[in-house]
Amino acid sequence: MEIHITLNQKKITVDVKADAVLMDVLRSLGCKSVKCGCETTNCGLCTVWVNGKSRLSCSVLAASVDGCEITTLEGVEEEAAEFGRFLAAEGGEQCGFCSPGFIMNVLAMKRELEAPDLEEIKEYLAGNLCRCTGYMSQLRAIRKYMAAQKEQAGKEAQA
User: pTM of the predicted model, to two decimals?
Assistant: First the structure.
């Protein structure tokens, strides 16, 4: 079956099988940031945005996103790199395997929550598993990134 999607701001048409999951289709289209870690919706590695909302692409049938806008890490590289600098500075990137899905959720959280406290951050990112960091370095990075974003927005508002 043929579906029409906007992938990272480019309109495309792709032929998919009725039972194809979005994760597999995106990887076949070159979006290698979309990873498979569990296939049970428990790890967050396959996180993408569907119409601006975080979704686990291993649990989404590709046919169900016909007409939707899909964003992967490849579509937000500049913003992801900015947060990645904070993550690296705090030692939160470790092996990096979980980073794409984690970063997609952090960027979605930034758009959705204005000034999340520590508990809101933990709740928002509860579905992202990382076996290397212990999460404290990631939480420090997120808080510093969010503070820097708020400061930057304040400077832009004054200009």
Answer: 0.91
